[in-house]
Amino acid sequence: MDTGKYIESTALLKGTFFENTRIIITEYNQEGAMGFVFNKLFPRKFNELAEFADCPPFPLYDGGPVDREHLYFIHRRPDLIEGGIKISAGIYYGGDFATAVACMKNGDLREDDIKLFIGYCGWNWKEIDGELAEGSWKPLEGVNLLQVIL
To answer: Where is the secretion signal located (predicted)?
Structure first.
């Protein structure tokens, strides 16, 4: 497994949080793996969170079952948001969140430039590899992934 790869759940995960999910892997190293569900909307919009009430109504995604107290984001605008980590061609993870919010407010960032997540998915070292080997996940290939994700 590599950073920037996309996976989708299989029938083995039916009845779990991960049923019918697609995930982008944003970190993969000896500490484990991290990623975000990018096809599962959260029931509220970004501006429905009290501290962001003055922001545009960008969609929020249910990024995963871990650390649901924090917001995370991926984007394709490193020219606007400093500090992001390139995870695949044209897609960056994180960066200066205050700048991202300001750019959403002033219209420099559009919905197709950024995805906002509540929570994330996390795996211990080699755990995701085992889940792929057992068939819980399969690589997502054969589609324009940049268009799928943003």
So the answer is: none
